[in-house]
């Protein structure tokens, strides 16, 4: 399978795995929900898990791939504040945890670019 055909499926797999972990281990995500959001952190954790699963399905299907990939790029931008919160909350933790928390921040950029690339590679095919 050519790389251009694998990339959307890998992105869908990443999104699906992340979505599943929101239900399998919600407590770790609850702590990342900014307190400025209304309602229960658990509600936001489950909602973001559902969103990731829906995005995964959309990216996996050629017919909805472009729109879902663009939505995934927007989603990756939208969850950035949670990653910032994690980095700030973990700034006094041991060095490996602190490095992981701060290391997540720049990783959003390749995720956004990957999703946009999947959308762009879909143009003209649907």
TrEMBL record:
The alphabetized UniProt keywords are: Membrane, Signal, Transmembrane, Transmembrane helix
Signal peptide limits: 1-23
Source taxon at top rank: Bacteria
Q: Where in the cell is it found?
A: Membrane
Family annotation (Pfam families): MauE
For this protein, the record's InterPro entries field holds: Methylamine_util_MauE (IPR009908)
Q: What is its main location?
A: membrane
Span-the-membrane segments of this chain are: 68-88
Q: How does it sit in the membrane?
A: Multi-pass membrane protein
Locate the Methylamine utilisation protein MauE domain: which residues? 9-78
| Protein name stated in the entry | MauE/DoxX family redox-associated membrane protein
Q: Which organism is it from?
A: Streptomyces lanatus
């Amino acid at each position: 399978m050519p790389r251009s055909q694998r990339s959307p499926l890998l992105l869908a797999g990443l999104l699906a795995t992340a979505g599943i972990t929101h239900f399998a281990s919600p407590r770790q995500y609850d702590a990342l929900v900014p307190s400025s959001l209304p309602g229960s952190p658990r509600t936001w954790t489950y909602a973001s898990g559902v969103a990731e699963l829906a995005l995964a399905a959309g990216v996996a299907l050629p017919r909805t791939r472009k729109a879902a990939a663009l939505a995934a790029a927007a989603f990756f931008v939208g969850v950035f504040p949670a990653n910032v919160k994690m980095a700030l909350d973990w700034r006094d933790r041991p060095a490996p945890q602190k490095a992981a928390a701060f290391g997540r921040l720049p990783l959003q950029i390749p995720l956004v670019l990957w999703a946009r690339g999947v959308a762009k590679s879909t143009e003209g095919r649907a």
